[in-house]
Amino acid sequence: MSETLTWIMNHRPEFYRALGQHLLMCGVSMAFALLLGLSLAILIVNRRGLAFSVVNGVSALRALPSLAILAIMMPLLGIGLWPSIVALTVLALPPILLNAYVGLRDVDPDAVEAAIGMGMSRGQVLRRIRIWLAAPAMFAGARTAAVQVLAGATLAPFIGGGGLGDFIVTGISIMDTSRMLVGAVPIALLALGVELILSLAERLLFAGRART
Amino acid sequence: MITLEHVTKRYPGTAVPAVDDLSLHVPEGMTVALIGPSGCGKTTTMRMINRLVDPTTGKILVNGEDVTQVDPVLLRRHIGYVIQQVGLFPHMTIAQNIAAVPKLLGWDQARIARRTEELLHLVGLDPGQMLERYPAQLSGGQRQRVGVARALAGDPPVLLMDEPFGALDPIARSLLQAEFSQILKRVRKTVVLVTHDLDEAARLGDRIAIMKSGRIVQYDTPNVVLSHPADAFVENFVGVDRALVRLSLFTAGDAMTAELPPGHTGVVGLGSNLRDALALMVAANSDVLGVVDEFGALKGRLTRQAIFSI
User: Which of A28, A54, A138, B172 sits a CA distance of 20 to 30 A from B12?
Assistant: First the structure.
């Protein structure tokens, strides 16, 4: 462990670059996945036929292992940071989209009935009622996706994406445990930290709003 | 105010229509209770008025306007709608819930605030306590009061109510029914009320429409429906206690005579209904009661004979 710390101290620029890459990869792919997933969910919630195919297509994506998704990107997009970001976006999309869709679809039917009955248009029901009531489900989806993306990013070195996973791959190939830990410990801390912060945020945001 | 002409609703894949060639006229300011066994088409009939359901054939006029010719979204903003489950928006405060329709109608902030407060008073809630609360913090009875206030917010001429008090406990229900009939006297709306509760229909309805298999079998005042059922179905539907339900339509004041009661008797208030008065007589094993006004002063006597012959 002390060897690990010493290595980091002696190779600070290298460590920070890898950490930066890791966070960039995760942040950008989460942003893409949120943008894509939430807008798709909103788009399909009032269109039953479209919803059926999108939901099934995305559910199928979920069955693919993270490494396979990364591997598929290589022949399609080559190697480097961008293919990794695309792969991670694909990884984050299912939990975000499915949670948001189910959340939007299954909001309290009485509130929706009342909203339609008082003269809200479909768009108004969506903007003023459904999205607000589905917010907790959307947040839960994003939380699941964030943890998956952080873990998935560890595999990015296999297609030249860089990030903290680089140290693990190198460590394994030169049989150096302390080098492996240079990647593994920060990755574990990141995942735990994000999970903790998001679960706290979830509680703060939605605690006051018990369901009727 | 509301007119249905030969309206039929046939759902695809069903042999019998849900509503079958139904015609109904609800004059302005009147409350009509649609009542009947489940599946008789009462809810479908009501939901066609604000176009939550579209009729297969026939014509529906609200305020002289054919509802199929107007945008359903705009139509609904001028028709209040109250449902059994209330359907308050859990993420909005009580103030925001009540303000929903006025906001859709584009009222300014000050007018909305005034209206919200006025309505909370009308339905017997304290604005100071209620405005900033969320629906989850209210009791069932309070929620339904807010539901009624929300439906009245845009001052619609027409109000549709789908079993509005059905989810409440008997005490809260009877209290709200009494208050609601007072509210109706003050706001003068044309109301269509769907219920399966004969007491509620008799209490709130100026007219009762009894439905069976998508048709109206009798449409008349509660008194006539209860005293002269049109056929065996209605007679069976209103039940063996219809005579008692009918008594609840009249007050002690309606049946009393001005002479004072002989000697010492039990008393009943002027405004109490005859059903309760009869119950008092049975309990006291007496044929006569004194009738008192709200200050307790004796006003006359009520005899069993007078109750039986009303």
Answer: A54
